[in-house]
C-alpha cells in the first residue's frame, strides 16, 4: 500500500479515515473535480460522529490533523479548524441513510456544466452508469450551505446515490469513501460522454437545416435554363 492508496471498505480506524480523506481530496483536486478551496469530503465514524474537511482550505493539500469532527447535528466535537457550512448537506444523508458511510461533494466541470444548463443526466446511454447509479437527477437551485439546499435535496436522498445540484456541482455517497469517490468520477465520465455524443448530433442537425434553407450551387444546366 502506498501513501496515495485508498482501499475499499469502511472498517478502519479514525487515523486511517483521516488519511483516506486526504488521499481522496488529492485525487479530486488532481482530476479537476475541485479547484482552490472548493468541495468537501466526509466519513461517518464508528461512534456515529462525522469526520470532515475544513472550510477555506484546498482539499488537495490537506493533512490529517486539519480535519474536523462533528456530531450528526453539526456541533463541532474536535479539531482546530472550522467545518464547511455545506456539511449540512452531508449530515442530511447520514441522518436519512444508515447505509451511507462517506460523501464527496465537488464541482466536476462537465457535469457541473449540465447542472448550470438545468439538465439532469437521466438518459440511459451507458450500461455501466445505469447499473451503477441509475439516473442522476438534477436538484433545483438553492444557496449552498443553507437550510433551503437541504430541503431541496431531501426528497432525493432516499432514492439516489449521486445528484447534480443546479448551478452548483455534484454530490455522491457510498458505503465507503472509495465508492463515493468512484461515483463522483462516474458522474463526470457520464457527462463527458453525453456531451461528446451530442456534439456530432447537433452538427448533423445544423447541416441538414442548412441544406434545406440554402440554395444548391449553380450548375451549367441550371445556368442555361435561367438564360
Please tell me how large the radius of gyration is: 23 Å
End-to-end Cα distance: 83 Å
State the major sheet: 8 strands, mixed
pLDDT < 50 stretches = none
The first-level CATH class name: Alpha Beta
CATH superfamily: Class II aldolase/adducin N-terminal domain
Structure characterization notes:
With 227 residues, this protein is of the alpha+beta class. It has a single domain, classed as L-fuculose-1-phosphate Aldolase, CATH 3.40.225. The protein contains 7 helices and 8 strands. It has an 8-stranded mixed β-sheet with strand order 4-3-2-1-5-8-7-6, sandwiched between helices. Helix 3 packs across helix 6. The longest helix has 37 residues. The protein is elongated and about 70 Å long.
Keyword list:
227 residues, alpha+beta, L-fuculose-1-phosphate Aldolase, eight-stranded mixed sheet, 8 strands, 14% strand
Provide a short characterization of the protein structure:
This protein is α+β, with helices and mostly antiparallel strands. The protein is 41% helix and 14% strand. The chain has one domain (14-226): L-fuculose-1-phosphate Aldolase, CATH 3.40.225.
